[in-house]
């Protein structure tokens, strides 16, 4: 019984975090909450984004980790994935190439920076 309650609590915490992540951007007029299919894959932590490099497109990333929870921006589109520990923002100018990935504000990938 305790195990079932712990699992239920963990699941509800993840859902609450996703809600908080989306709610955080609700005042931005360019923000659009996106519908995520029930059976879609979801990232559980930042490691899901570790393979992002210049060969990965937004489409390939979404196919691998699931669709974003929201989108905002006008000139540059920012796709938002909610995680239990915050959020990941993926910036794209053309809707295909990934320009930058941020986890809770910290840049973890920048296409312009050479390795």
Short précis:
The protein has 115 residues and is an alpha+beta fold. The protein has 2 helices and 6 strands.
Characterization of this structure:
- The chain contains 2 helices and 6 strands, in the order αβαβββββ.
- It is α+β, with helices and mostly antiparallel strands and 115 residues long.
- It has one domain.
- It has a 6-stranded antiparallel sheet with strand order 1-2-3-4-5-6.
- β2 and β3 (77-83) form a beta hairpin.
- It is globular and about 30 Å long.
- The protein starts with a helix and ends in a 5-residue tail after the last strand.
Produce the secondary structure layout.
Blueprint: H1 2-24, E1 32-33, H2 58-65, E2 70-72, E3 77-83, E4 86-92, E5 100-103, E6 106-110
Antiparallel strand pairs: 1-2, 2-3, 3-4, 4-5, 5-6
The percent range for strand residues is 15-25%
Shape: globular
Q: Which structural category do the helix and sheet elements fall into? A: alpha+beta
Work out the helicity level: 25-40%
**H-E order:** HEHEEEEE
């Amino acid at each position: 019984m305790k195990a079932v309650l712990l699992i239920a609590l963990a699941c509800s915490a993840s859902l609450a975090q996703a809600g908080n992540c989306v709610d955080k951007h609700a005042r931005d007029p360019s923000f659009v909450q996106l519908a995520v299919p029930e059976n879609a894959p979801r990232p559980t932590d930042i490691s899901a984004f570790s393979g992002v490099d210049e060969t990965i497109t937004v489409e390939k990333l979404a196919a691998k980790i699931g669709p974003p929870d929201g989108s905002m921006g006008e000139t540059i589109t920012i796709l938002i994935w909610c995680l239990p520990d915050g959020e990941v923002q993926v910036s794209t100018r053309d809707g295909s190439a990934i320009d930058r990935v941020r986890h809770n504000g910290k840049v973890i990938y920048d296409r312009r920076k050479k390795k």
